[in-house]
Amino acid sequence: MLETILVIAGKPGLYKLISRGSKSLVVETLDERHHRMPAFATDRVISLADIAMYTTEEEVPLADVLTSVQKKENGEKVSLDYKKASRDQLFAYFAEILPDFDRDRVFPSDVKKLLQWYDILITNGLTDFSKLRPTEGDNIDDRKDAE
What we know:
Structural class: alpha+beta
Order of helices and strands: EEEEEEEHHH
């Protein structure tokens, strides 16, 4: 099974898919604790492969945006203190990565979350962002919904 990196709505950080149950997924936090827990059908679980950033033309897959951040930072963690950065600082930084991003639909919180995810992935040695792209037939929602 390919490693899948997930976001769970309402929960901080990123998660790695470990296995699938009949009514849940078993995920592991991508942090120093590596805590395992279930994610149920009622949780909003999204693969990073399914996320894209708005531009003035079209949506750009998150994998491409992360690759641009990686090139800008030479494979290191983000140089900008995104937790304390102002809206203008965040957007100036993000414009270097994705020049034509849609300033009406991309919010400062979106940029902060993207940079946080990038740092988590780099810290955990997950640097090949091409693996985040969706592949034919790769769908985490193949589980049965709990009723």
